[in-house]
Design goal:
The protein has two domains: 1-117, no CATH class; 132-198, no CATH class. The chain is built from seven helices and no strands. The protein has helices at 2-39, 47-55, 59-92, 94-130, 135-148, 155-164, 170-202. α4 (94-130) packs across α5 and α4 packs across α6 (155-164). The protein is elongated.
């Protein structure tokens, strides 16, 4: 029993770490699938994409998702602890369980904060386009602003833009047209860059 009590904290940390990795991989897979669907302006096509679309739809859903996961995680850790060190051993290492619980609550708060930030961005985009007479022009200004100001690599902004583009109204259609135009432009630029690199690698021709 003494050996079990000494090893239990390490086992608990490893178990909690493995559960967090599993959840992170699930979130990452859903994010990638959903981003691909957004990029092609289509509804979620996979289970992971639908899951991510649901949990990122509102702050409340993200909190529910994270809270349920953390409750299940803590439950598994407690069951694991009871089976390995027994109820008395669990009492002796209860501080570690509480620490894991505090970390879980902090994690829920971080997730909710990120979702709220993205939703606020979406509302700002919708408000700016809806208040403009030239909705396509305003949508183009918002997209070009991200490109010209060096924020083209900011995934949160682009995610919000493509989410708004899914809305089936004049705002969404205007933004979708601009994003399609920008996407085609970027694709053409990449092709030209690739062709230029190929020409340089080929070297001068025999007659040149």
């Amino acid at each position: 029993m003494q050996f079990d009590l000494m090893a239990a904290p390490y086992l608990f940390v490893v178990l909690a770490f493995m559960i967090q990795i599993f959840w992170f991989m699930l979130q990452r897979r859903g994010q990638i699938d959903y981003a691909q669907d957004l990029y092609h302006f289509r509804a979620p096509t996979t289970v992971f994409s639908r899951y991510y679309a649901w949990r990122s739809g509102s702050v409340g859903k993200s909190v529910i998702d994270a809270a349920l996961f953390n409750i299940v995680s803590l439950g598994l850790i407690v069951v694991f602890g009871v089976l390995t060190v027994g109820p008395e051993g669990m009492m002796e290492i209860s501080a570690l369980v509480v620490l894991i619980g505090v970390f879980s609550v902090f994690n829920v708060g971080q997730i909710a904060r990120r979702v709220r930030k993205r939703i606020e961005l979406e509302r700002t985009i919708i408000r700016n386009i809806s208040q403009s007479v030239d909705k396509v022009g305003e949508a183009r200004r918002l997209v070009e602003q991200q490109v010209l100001t060096g924020q083209s690599r900011n995934p949160t902004v682009w995610f919000a833009l493509f989410c708004v583009a899914q809305i089936q109204d004049q705002i969404g259609w205007s933004l979708r047209d601009v994003l399609l135009e920008e996407r085609n432009k970027m694709t053409t630029t990449r092709k030209e860059t690739f062709q230029s690199a190929q020409d340089e690698d080929a070297g001068p021709s025999i007659g040149g």
